[in-house]
Protein 1
Amino acid sequence: MSKFLFGSLSKTLVVALLTCVVIAAVTAWLLLPTNNAQYPADQLVTTDVQIENELKLVQVTLDSQQSNQDYLLHFLDADSDEKIAVVFVKRGSLKVVSLPVGDYHIKFASGAQWQDEQSLFGADTDIRQTQIPMKLTARRSGASYNVIRLNTKFIGQLQPAKM
C-alpha cells in the first residue's frame, strides 16, 4: 500500500512542479520589456548630387558585428550638408548600401534601444559626426567597396554633434 501511495504522490508532485515551471516561464516571457517602436526605413534622398552621379554608385558596407549598439546614420554632402541618405543598422549586423560618388560627412546616432525618429534612442542617444569628409569614388572596373566599422572605438574618436 505504501509503494502505491508513494509512487502516486511522486508522479503528482512531478506534474505539479513541471506546471509551476511552465507557468513561471510564460509569465517571465510576458513581462519582458518589448520595443514596439518601428525601426526607420532606409532612404536615399533624391538630390542634385544623386541625379548628377546616378550611374556612379559606390557600395558601402556598414559593419556593426562587434557592437552592442544600434545606429542611425545620415550621409551628408560634404560641401552643402545636404542629406543624401539615411540608414539604420541594427547591432551585430552587416548592411550594404549603394551611395552616389561624392564626399560625405556622416552623422551617427547610436544607442541601446530605438525609440522613434523624434527621440532617437532616448536619454542614452550618442550623436557624433565625422570632421574630415569621407571620399567615395567609383573605380573604372565598377563600384568600389568601402567598409565602415561601427563600434565604440571608432565612434569614440568622432566629435559630438546634434542631429
Note: The helical segments are 2-31, 48-52, 152-156.
Protein 2
Amino acid sequence: MTGRGPRWWRAVRWYVREFTDESAYDRYVAHARKDHPCAAVMSRRAFERKRTDRQESDPRQGFRCC
C-alpha cells in the first residue's frame, strides 16, 4: 500500500494536465521533433500566443468573458 501514493498522484496529475490542456505544448514538441525534425520548434510563449489567437478568432470556440 505504500507504493500506491506516487502512482495515484501521477494519474491525477496526468488527468488534470489533459483536462486543462496544459500538456498541449508537450504534445506539440513531440510531434514537431518526430515529424518535422529539421523545423524549428516554437517556444512555449509563442505556442501559447498562437493557440490563444486561434481560439479567440474561431467563433465556434465560444466566447471569452475576461
Note: Residues 10 and 16 are 10 Å apart (CA to CA).
